Amino acid sequence: MSFQASTSREKVSGKTRAKAGSAEQAQPKLDALQPLLAGAHARGMADAFELAGVAAVMVDAQGMVLHAGQPARELFGPDLRLEFDHLVGCDGESTCAIQSLIGEALGDGDAPGSILLPRAGRTPFRLHARRVPGAATNLCQMLKLLIIIEEVAPRPAGN
How is residue 112 annotated by DSSP? Predict the structure, then answer.
């Protein structure tokens, strides 16, 4: 029985072999190092943002937070925080704005602008969503999006 199976595999027509070869070529080949390189790329970005003191939150394709650097965690409080690996605001409207920003940025359209996130008795946060270059086509890269958080400087009196 095994002899017949091996013989029948050897008698595949030239057309069938060509189709099989083209199907293999259509599938992207994954190098064993690609997942390691993708992880190192994300870790390097996280370290660079942290060293520069930039409040950055790293997000995956499902909109879940993979990593929040120390500068970002220092800004977290009642107005902006992590709940179940998602960025949320102080109320439904703020949370909806944050999640809409993330959803638009993960989509195929133009990159969204920034949003202002009001804070009680303080200047608002501005959240910017930035796509990670090349991540959309890299199956091994979990990091797809960066959310940069900045405190809006208060306006000088008289303006």
Answer: P
Mean pLDDT across the chain, nearest whole number? 79
Instruction: Answer yes or no: is 80 within a domain.
Output: yes
Residue 156 lies in a domain: no
Q: Write out the H or E segment, with its range, that includes residue 38.
A: helix 34-52
If you average pLDDT over residues 100-115, what whole number do you get? 89
Q: How confident is the model at residue 112 (pLDDT cuts 50, 70, 90)?
A: confident
97 vs 103: CA distance, rounded Å:
10
Q: What is the pLDDT of residue 155?
A: 74
Overall domain count for the chain: 1
CA atoms of 99 and 95, how far apart (whole Å): 6
What is the per-residue pLDDT for 16? 47
Element spanning 6, H or E: helix 2-10
Which structural domain, as residue segments, surrounds residue 38? 31-151
CATH number of the domain enclosing 125: 3.30.450.20
What are the Cα distances from residue 38, in Å, to 43, 77, 78, 134? 9, 31, 33, 11
Residue 107 lies in a domain: yes
